[in-house]
Each structure stands twice: as structure tokens, then as C-alpha cells.
Amino acid sequence: xxxxxxxxxxxxxxxxxxxxxxxxxxxxxxxxxxxxxxxxxxxxxxxxxxxxxxxxxxxxxxxxxxxxxxxxxxxxxxxxxxxxxxxxxxxxxxxxxxxxxxxxxxxxxxxxxxxxxxxxxxxxxxxxxxxxxxxxxxxxxxxxxxxxxxxxxxxxxxxxxxxxxxxxxxxxxxxxxxxxxxxxxxxxxxxxxxxxxxxxxxxxxxxxxxxxxxxxxxxxxxxxxxxxxxxxxxxxxxxxxxxxxxxxxxxxxxxxxxxxxxxx
Amino acid sequence: xxxxxxxxxxxxxxxxxxxxxxxxxxxxxxxxxxxxxxxxxxxxxxxxxxxxxxxxxxxxxxxxxxxxxxxxxxxxxxxxxxxxxxxxxxxxxxxxxxxxxxxxxxxxxxxxxxxxxxxxxxxxxxxxxxxxxxxxxxxxxxxxxxxxxxxxxxxxxxxxxxxxxxxxxxxxxxxxxxxxxxxxxxxxxxxxxxxxxxxxxxxxxxxxxxxxxxxxxxxxxxxxxxxxxxxxxxxxxxxxxxxxxxxxxxxxxxxxxxxxxxxxxxxxxxxxxxxxxxxxxxxxxxxxxxxxxxxxxxxxxxxxxxxxxxxxxxxxxxxxxxxxxxxxxxxxxxxxxxxxxxxxxxxxxxxxxxxxxxxxxxxxxxxxxxxx
Lengths: 264, 372
Prior knowledge:
The complex is a heterodimer of chains A (264) and B (372).
Chain A: E1 6-17, E2 24-35, E3 39-44, H1 50-57, E4 65-70, E5 87-90, H2 102-113, H3 118-131, H4 148-159, E6 166-170, H5 178-195, E7 198-202, H6 206-212, E8 215-220, E9 223-228, H7 230-235, H8 239-246, H9 248-259
Parallel strand pairs in A: 3-7, 3-8, 5-6, 6-7
Antiparallel strand pairs in A: 1-2, 1-4, 8-9
Helix pairs in contact in A: 2-3, 2-4, 3-4, 6-9, 8-9
Chain B: E1 7-13, E2 16-22, E3 24-25, H1 27-30, H2 33-44, E4 51-53, E5 59-60, H3 62-71, E6 80-81, H4 84-96, H5 108-145, H6 152-163, H7 167-192, H8 198-236, H9 239-245, H10 250-289, H11 293-303, H12 306-332, H13 338-366
Parallel strand pairs in B: 2-4, 3-5, 4-6
Antiparallel strand pairs in B: 1-2
Helix pairs in contact in B: 3-4, 5-10, 6-10, 7-8, 7-10, 8-10, 8-11, 8-12, 8-13, 10-12, 12-13
């Protein structure tokens, strides 16, 4: 079914939540493809089911109807052993294990394999820690002692510890100050380039959106109304897109598009 | 052998032996212990000073590169043939492989200071608890002046959760203890023909000691832990700080309602548990010695004076307040991480059960002339 280029394939997806009188439909017959090597951003108003879709891709929730395949497998199989080598997920608040130090957090997926010697795991975790721009002096800190930006970086290092080809990001820059946000976006872009990652992200931050995305998928009216490169999406006629991109905030962020010709 | 098995192949070239790295050297592959062993065996076979050829490898990720790099003694081999992508991965690994600064062993001076810190910590616990108790007194005084401003809805909610929902379990435990105690005692009493004294033994021991103690220990385990966990999670989610910036006192809104609810519920549950235990004892005495419930009821007032019940009730009020205060104390001291939450809840239950037993002993000594 998968032609080799699609990392994620979603076909005829329905998501319904039980309501008082009738079911509340979030997704109705939704189709979406994510191709290898691209950065796809999911955009939509609140309640359009962006995070639900992300959780369904991860196999944390299952859709009412329809089929999802991730790297040619059903999402449910992601819960199996060694899943961290297929998909990495950066949760909105980092979801670091608060009882573990930074290094133990990053090393956790490798340690749980129980096949590798501790020295190799420690070296690998230290490499990942420095790849996300943190020095080895932070290795022994506890998550409670980290700033918001550092938590995101450590969580990213943990998501990447087994070099998964697919990385999912939920609001990667939410809650960061503009400086940390910019440097985090730069980090994500360089990792995407160096590691050849496929990235799917949910974001509301227009700067992040335009700086990172190679494609944008807009969720509205319970399906993906448009899915294409940023410029094509902005040109699409729909009230949500008009409001989201061409409002005052959007105008400012769009300067980025004109100043830096888009390049992957 | 699968094509993705990480392995090497020796090759004799003009410049000396060279090794071709084959298969997938990735974390995903190494999840399989056999694959990791195969990679290690392949490296162990490698002659020292050999050249390396990575170009035919299926895939080498950072973990695979780390394995190679560590095998090379953290330096570049004499000769290396690699694709640009593989070289980039190796370069990142080479750049970022560092030794952690060793964690120094504690010196004696540091241990001595650590001991002092532990004493100071214990002192802070005591101070925190005294402050909490004092604050509760002040809040009770304030409540007495403006009773209509009190958090009554909270009190009634806690009364229901701590008191009403505990009735089935305390009754069951009390009843079973009553049955067992009466049965074991009756075996001894029969030998002396002192069957009728079962009423005295059960009356005094259950009403004065076992009923209140059982109830307090059950409630300490059930509600003391719940109080610590609730308040602790509020710390983890910043709710405690949110309350403080609104100018709402933790002690007024969190501690006082729980202390009041437990002070009211604890004696009631204690009496309820005692009744269940007496019921169990009565049944057991009837079955094993033929002492009728009729006789049991008639003999009870003479066997155990009413002062025992007053003492038990007073004791239970103190148990209730202590359980609430200890639960709140540990809850408020939880730090925002899961480890601390678990430790706090455990410490709360252990401390409150110990406190219940200590207070019980204290009451036994102080009121040794009452009711016996």
C-alpha cells in the first residue's frame, strides 16, 4: 500500500466523541499523506482535532473509522519494544520523567532495551545532549531545575536518542520566550537537515510555522481543506485561512516569507 | 543471517588489511540482543590498525557510530572510507563524545556537614508542623468570630469522602476483628469456666482501645494518604501558588476544612467500628460458648463503664486532627516532581499511624484510672 515515499498515510479517517444527544464529529473522512523528509505543519482553530490527530498517529488513541499507517505499520504497533527507534515525540510540556536526571531521561529508551552496556548508553546520551545544544555540565541536573527552553531541548534529545526517522512535535515553541523560541527553531531546522528527519508538527506560532514548514495542512470543517507549500496555502480562499494568516499577526510573520526566499 | 545483521568482512588490500562494515548499525537493530552481540563480535575480530570501509553498510546511526568510535579508541582510524552522510554522523559523535566530570567521593568533612544538614531538615519539619498547628488554632479563632465565612461546603464534602465512604470498610474490618478476638478468647476462658467474662474482656478492649485504634489506622491509611496526594498534586500543578497569589490562605482553605471534617468524622467512625466489632464478638460468643446476645446486652453496661466510651471519643478527636495535620504537612512540603509526591505520601501514612499509636499510649498512661 505504501509507495515508499509516504511516511504517514491517513485514509478516510473519522473521529467521533460521544456527546449528550449525538456524537460530536471532529474528523470526517480525512485524508493526509506525509512524505519522507518534509516538515508538515498541522494548523487549525482550537477544537479542530490537531492534537487528537497527532495522538492517533502515535497510536495513543484510535480513530472511530479509517486507516492510519505509519512507516508502513499500524500505529498500535508503535507501543511495542524499541518503538523509540521508529517515532520520536516531543510533548508540549516536555513530559520529562521528573524523578530522573537529564542524562537518565535521555538514556531511558536505550537502557530499557537491556541489551547495551551502560558506558555506550552514557556516551550516546551525552552526544544527543550536546547535539541539542546543551553542555555536558547539565547532565546531572534534575528536570525541576531546568528552564522551559532547556526542558524542550532535553525532551528533544530524548525523542531522538534512537535516531527515529519520524519526529512529531506538539507546539514545539509554545511557552518559550522569543529568543529561546528562535534558537529552538534554528536547532530543529539544523537537525532536520542533518538527520534527514520527517517532521510533523502542530503549532500556532506563525514564526515557527513559516520558518520550518515545507508544507502546511490546514484542518477546518472536519477535514484537511488545503495541503501544500506555505505560499499556496495562503492563497487559498477560506475564512479561517484569511483570518489566521492575513490578520495583523500574520502580516508581520509573512515578512519572513518575502525576505528569505523559502528553501529546504 | 539476515542482510541487516551488523557484521564486518575482512578484505586484503594493497595497503594492509581492511574491514568492510555491513548491515544496519542502528539503535533499532541493537534492540535485538543477538544483533548487538554480532556487532560486538565483529569488532572484536578486527585486527588492530586495520582500515575501515563503511560505504557498503545499510545504515549507520549515531549509536552505531558511537560503537565504532569507542572501538577505535576515540580517534580516527588509519584509513576510513565513508559516504559523506556517514562521515557527518561520525564527526558529530567524535565532536560530542566527552567524559563526564567524575562525581567526587564525599569527604569526611562533607559527611559531617551532611549530618548537620539532616538535623536542620528535621528541625524544619518540626517547625513547619508547629507552625501549621498554630495557624490552625488562629484560623479556628477567626472562624469562631465569623462562622458564616467558613469553608463549610468543603467541610461537608470532606465529611462525606472521609467519613461516609469509609463506613463499609471499617465495619467489615471491625466485625472480623471482633469475631476473631471473641473466638480466641473464648478458647482460653472455657478452660477456667469463666465464660461470662467474655463480655468484660470484649467490652473494655474493643470500646476503649481496639475500636478507636482500628478506625484511626484505617483512616490514616485511607484518608491521610489521600490528603497528602491531593495537596501534593496541587503543588505539582502550581495550584497552591495560584491560591496564594489570590490571597487565599492554604491553612484556611485546605488544612482547616480537613482537620474539622476529620475531628467530626473520626469519633463517629470509631464508634461505628466499635459497634461492628462488638457485633462480631457477640456473634462469635453465641456460637462458641452459647452466650446469648440478650445476656451480652444486659451485662455490657456493668462490664465496661460509660467513661470508656468518653475516653475513646476524646482520643478519636485527637487522632482525627493529627491525621489531618500530618497529611497536610507532608502534602504542603511536596516538591514539584513525582518522586517527592510518592515519598511524601508514604511518609505521611507512616507518620500518622505512628502518631496514632503514640497518642494512644499517651492516653493510656494519662487516663489509667478512668473507666477500668
